[in-house]
Predict the structure.
Amino acid sequence: MALFGFGKEKREGGNSDLVLAYLEDAQRVRTPFILQDKRKLEHHGVLQALDEESGTMNLQVTGSYAGDKGSQVDMVFVHEGLRLGATARLVEVRGSTVVVEIPEDLSLSERRKQARARLNAKEGATLTGLTSLFEGVGITGTIENISETGCRVRVEKALNIKDQKKLGIGSALVSVGHAFMILKLNKVPRCPAVMELDGKVAYVDDKSGGLVLGLLFEKSEFTSALKSLVANRAGSIPSAVPPKARRKAVIDGPNDEPYLAAKVEKRVDPPPPKNVEPSTVIEPVPPAPLPPAPLSPVPSPVMGAAISSPPSQAPGNSRTSPLQRMKKRSRSMLILSSAGHGTMLQEFFQEEGYGRIHLAVGWDEVVAQLQPPGVNVLMVDTERPVLESLEMVQRLKDAGLNLPPIVLAADEISRALVIAAQRVGVAQLLVKPYSLDETLSNLIEQQVGLA
């Protein structure tokens, strides 16, 4: 694999922009990396710094990394649902900091052969496994994702079947290839309430804060139901690293006030969700500029995954310092989400120039922060069922609360959901998972009256 050379001379061409786009996002959200040293030992770490001028990046790793200057470093990281691999050349090791050249290329390192559907913990899908009826190991856990041929389970309890005593949850519990006589799947969406089949262990992972097992199913009568679930929730596995543009370039504007300028890139929009009929996917209509008081929500049955970006403009026209000052001083956002994801969204919009971003983890906090009025947009992305969020919005309206435009994230989009969202006054629907990129920024700008 071709790599950047040592020193200050930076190599031209190749896929460097694509690589930097992924690495910059991985650094921003602190994506875990796995590096392999010359002894074939794995070291977990995070990307601390990117130096584009020298063509190097710094990774903070666990343990004592062993390697010689100029040797090959293999790394893997999972970002936006993709398992990406890269090979780089080692520059130096400084304690727990490993400095390597920025790789010129990324490759897909997917272990899965088929598409899989992510399951929300709130959906309550669980698995109980027994190696045999009278002796061996029994486990129970939460199903994190599933395909027609297997699933990923986070083990919560383990016991010895013979004497019913609890067992320690660790990598020694079961090994790869270990067979389960019974695998009982409960409450898997769009499937029978209880499914019983058999299978074996495909992989064991205890490095992500607990024990995770990958299980392979034997073919059964439930294969078609699982296939239907995956087809409804997941897209096809890409054959190459999907295109990705670098988010922003930092430049200096008038009055020596820095601002973030959009990088002019050709954007490839993802296809609309499979279960949404074409007639429900329309182009967004930009709202009128905001008066001093916040606008009432304007219904618009537009799915986030089908949003088209506005035509690219020169940075000086599309991202001006006055626009950044307006975002910072006169536009306020309220984000209802979990603490971790809410913080990530807050950091993203702060980078976009917004100065007043409030977080809430419950609807009671939303009500408190909407009184008195002053919030220009409410973004809702929770683990709770989307219909529950729609019901809460309707209750707040019935109570006479003056609501700003609402952007609501949902795992799935259907005609019924679009109609329900339109009725209660949701301004925008987003399909999860969504990217923290220019499209999301443009969407929010439209809702707060800046586009």
